Structure to design on (268 residues):
């Protein structure tokens, strides 16, 4: 089996996001936590190697609660990836955040259950800080790039991560809205904290497709056709910003603490 080359940047997303790097080659990566969601495609972009992994699998066959998040992140780290770009679709919990908008997430609220969310299960006990889960340097770059592309962008937002595969009840959604949280999704946790444990910078670009159930009555009702049209437009906008986003990422990490080894803050 051909050994995978080293990569600089990792991206979780569908095959449509690969087009800007030209030709890619697929590699299988083994991990102590089992297989990643799919083979990893690696392409060259300028001086950088970029690794792509569809978190739901190439044919979107893995539901959010069954994704092997640890294998996905470990595989990226094995390839040498130090920065992760982690786009995802989401629902809006607030009327001012409209379908088609992008949100550069800065906080999360975990509402998942029974997901493997740490690499440290003993005998070493490690406690990471999740106070600032997303890389501030990458977030700043993502905000500037998306706004320069003419996309309505919210520079911060709290993502509620639910277990799935079901969506929220109206009561749950109203509760999340009342708490002031901005978006809702099923995959950002534990992806973000696992990246932290491995010392990788991570940025989430949340692509708003619709209003969540609790906003019914306060906003126009969203149809399936509108959701699909918004999703397609969001995907095109995401592909449009990937090239300038990668070009803006500095080769060396100096403006963030993401590379700090988790063990340095361990309490045993």
């Amino acid at each position: 089996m051909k050994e995978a080359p080293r990569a600089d940047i990792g991206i979780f997303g569908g095959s449509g996001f690969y087009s800007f790097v030209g030709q890619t080659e697929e590699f299988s990566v083994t991990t102590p936590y089992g297989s990643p969601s799919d083979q990893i495609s690696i392409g060259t972009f300028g001086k950088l190697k970029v690794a792509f992994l569809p978190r739901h699998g190439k044919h979107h066959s893995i539901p959010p609660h069954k994704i092997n998040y640890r294998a996905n992140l470990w595989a990226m780290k094995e390839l040498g990836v130090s920065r992760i770009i982690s786009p995802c679709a989401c629902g809006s919990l607030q009327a001012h955040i409209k379908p088609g908008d992008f949100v550069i997430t800065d906080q999360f609220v975990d509402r998942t259950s029974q997901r493997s969310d740490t690499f440290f299960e003993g005998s070493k006990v490690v406690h990471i800080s999740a106070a600032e889960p997303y890389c501030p340097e990458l977030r700043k770059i993502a905000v500037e790039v998306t706004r320069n592309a003419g996309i309505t962008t919210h520079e911060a937002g709290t993502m509620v991560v639910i277990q799935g595969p079901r969506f929220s009840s109206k009561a749950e959604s109203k509760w999340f809205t009342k708490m002031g949280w901005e978006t809702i999704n099923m995959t950002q946790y534990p992806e973000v904290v696992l990246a932290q444990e491995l010392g990788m910078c991570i940025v989430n670009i949340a692509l708003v497709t619709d209003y969540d159930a609790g906003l019914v009555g306060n906003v126009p009702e969203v149809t399936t056709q509108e959701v699909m049209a918004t999703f397609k437009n969001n995907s095109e906008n995401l592909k449009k910003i990937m090239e300038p986003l990668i070009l803006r990422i500095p080769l060396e990490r100096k403006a963030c603490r993401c590379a700090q080894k988790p063990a340095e803050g361990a309490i045993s």
User: Anything to note?
Assistant: The first strand starts at residue 9 and ends at 12. Confidence is low (pLDDT under 50) at residues 263-268. The chain is about 25% helix and 20% strand. The helical segments are 69-78, 136-148, 170-178, 188-197, 224-248.
